[in-house]
Amino acid sequence: MKVDRRNFIKTSGMFAAGSMVLPPFMQSCQNVQISADVKNYLDHFEVSTEMLQKVVATAMSKGGDYADLFFEHKTSNSIGLEDGKVNRAYSNIDFGVGIRVLKGDQTGFAYSENIALDDMLNAAKLAANIADSSSDFKQQAFSEKLPSDYYKISKKWEDVSVKDKVPFVQGINDKIFSLDDKVIKVNAGLSDETSFVLFYNSEGRLTYDYRPMVSFYAVCIMQKGEQIENAYAARSVRKGFEWLNEDLIDELANEAISKTNILFEAVKPKAGEMPVVLGAGGSGILLHEAIGHTFEADFNRKGTSIFSDKLNKKVAENFINIIDDGTLPNDRGAINIDDEGNDVQKTYLVKDGILNSYIHDRISAKHYGVEPTGNGRREGFRNMPLPRMRSTYMENGPHSVEQIFAEVDYGVYVDNFSNGEVKIGAGDFTFFVKSGYIIEKGKLTRPIKDINIVGNGPQALADISMAANDYKNDSGTWTCGKDGQSVPVTLGLPTVLVKKMTVGGTNA
Amino acid sequence: MTKEEKHILAKWAMNHALENGAQQASVSIANSQSSSVEVREQKIDKLEQAIQSSLSIRLFVDGKYSAHSTSRMKKEELARFIEEAIEGTRFLSEDEFRTLPEPELYYKGEGENLDLLDENFSKITPKEKIDLAFAAEKEVFGKDERLISVSCSYYDGLNERITVTSNGFEGYTANSHFGIFTSVSVDGGEARPESGWSESAIKYNKLKKEGTGKIALERALKKIGQEKIESGTMSMIVENRSMGRIFGPLINALNGSAIQQKNSFLIDKLGKKVVSDKLTLIDDPFIIGGRGSRLFDGEGLATKKRPVFNKGVLETYYIDTYYGKKLKMAPTSGGTTNLVFETSNKNLDEMVASTKKGILVTGFNGGNCNGSTGDFSYGIDGFLIENGQLTKPVSEMNITGNMLTLWSNIGEIGNDVNKNSSWLTPSVLFENVDFSGI
Predict the structure, then answer these.
(1) How far A427 CA sits from the closest chain B CA (Å)?
(2) Exposure check for chain A: N or C terminus, fewer CB within 10 A?
């Protein structure tokens, strides 16, 4: 999105709207053709095109093959409610540049929190050390890359006062208390984040992105007799202030209430292998853990993934198409450019049951001799990019939900999850079921809660025997962790049947 | 910035807040430096260096509270940052429980040196670091035909923090750490089992510099042929290094916030016997060179040695100033320091030998615990124990139960304490655990 100069410059988007600090005037352009948008970003970071070239030349000075600079300015704000009042606020400002140098598959990385030329040159020298020869680097002409526009917003978070956010958080508290007498406490919060990104590399590519994000959540705590239970409802999207409204409050409040209520009646199923029906939406965690991570090409390049020798092989039933997509409008997992300055795509990981593509960053794409898929992502300027997921989902299948249930004599139906994990090499993955139901003779019977389900990636993928036509994206606050870096993602699934997985439970 | 410059800046920021509408404030300036090198296939795969600093400020404005941090340390920007933060805080609701700690509870400076910093941190050369990573790789590379991949890392870090508060606390902490980590993947037919091993230390000359590669390879090879077995109720021994996953929820349940927000299965249990009398646990902040040692906590409260569980009786919660006021309880500390178990005289091998049927858990895979009820379910892998022998590797299984039941069913607390962590966990034998497999 286009950003005007005024909006760049605030020290914090946290508070009173309209305040700002102007940076010193900078001459950011030499005699090169630079668009007004790029010039705004250069001014924002107080760098000139000449400085970019100097830093890249230093990064390449030991004979690296490639170097990139990732400038980032991120403002995060949140307000929180506890014991009935919006009585806490937090904010954070991060600002700096990450400098990366590649030599073949090897990476040198350093960053600087100061964007003065000397500080950047020092960081560039450290990163340059991954190579150990002399440089024949030639400066490339600037080549501007216009980013896509997947997250249009109306009202930017940096223009919103904390005063205008408070009523929504107070509102969800009051709504939840009004819905059920068993509610004893509510925790709720609203977080927004705005990132400005400027990217330049040794090939001359110059691009930028403006990344808004908002998350809204409520935890409902209820008591019935001696028993206390809690559950939460949350949404996260790349949208502006216009996203908040009464309907959203009602939706989240009702969801938190119903998710908590079910827990009072819930039991543990019997332990062991059984059919698992995954409800549409958040069950996409199956794809994220069972398949997504093991498809990340860094693991496959090193041969450490259980899918390392399965490219172009049949891994699932013919009706199965699995996608990793960075282009969904306003999606939490969407990015206009990836963090290596590359175009983002809708990438078919599995097409008609065949393993079609891994998830690539620049290093792995080069290793496999393919085009990057736009999955090079990083938590921030302090981190190097890695192949990471964006929104991972499965397209609709040929079956109906009724057909799927009719197949199950005894099993479980699960649709509410809290977390998952995978062992890349063994392929064993798990996801934790906050709540669901036992299925007996095709019918939902007792609710279940707090059980882990474990499966093996290739086996579970092959065992998806049916998929319905009710695909749903889950816009919860999904955050994916890898090598100590967190990135926002989403996931989605139609209702599917997995023939068998191991369900936690009792042996009594 | 020198320590003195940081002190001056922190005081300036605090005073700026007080002059612009805050009645109380606390400011910390934290900085760190770190480096890491990872090697693969006899080449450097990744080389990283970082220097980081940030200022954080807690503001108490007309009975209202907020907290902020920034990596932008220029005075003119900080001034604006603080002023805006104070303005915004005024839009929040009042919170009568928010104050700085009572000054008499602050650390006063009489503690002994806990020896948490290697004064030679910056003298270790990049070449030494790289050589250590290559040496770890050499222990593995080419040593077994089933080897698929080995990555070895050396890493180190130094952290400093200076804190000032408007009611009289000033504190400075500095600590260092060094580590080596090797991760190995091997060809096990269809699966590619992986395992890792790490060594770490506060001082470079205490770091065990050999063995991570050899141990990681042995552990990965032992996993070949992992399979799930039949579901059943049996004994479980959890290896010392993996204990955090099932010990953590017991500690989380003691947190003041969890107690006050009704998200704990140990509400109103102080002074009551809640778990097996085999559990005696001390929180000891004063171990010289201990990973969790400290003289004061994040708020500046002086630390104390405290019993947490005494023969299964709950002796303390972890209560900070805010939740202390809400709960009308005296603050203890916001978090754990070093947690020390009273151990038996049995080591892991002896515990295995005494087990007729059970599973030795060497790793967890996902899972979670319901904080309100203590109900848990976790994925595990490890080894089947039959008649005192490890008979086969197992994986793709779950354990399911309740924390209070689990910790009431302690069979034995081993004597093999893991000293690589502030939670000094031994291996523990639990009886009657529900496993799900086939």
Answers:
(1) 7
(2) C
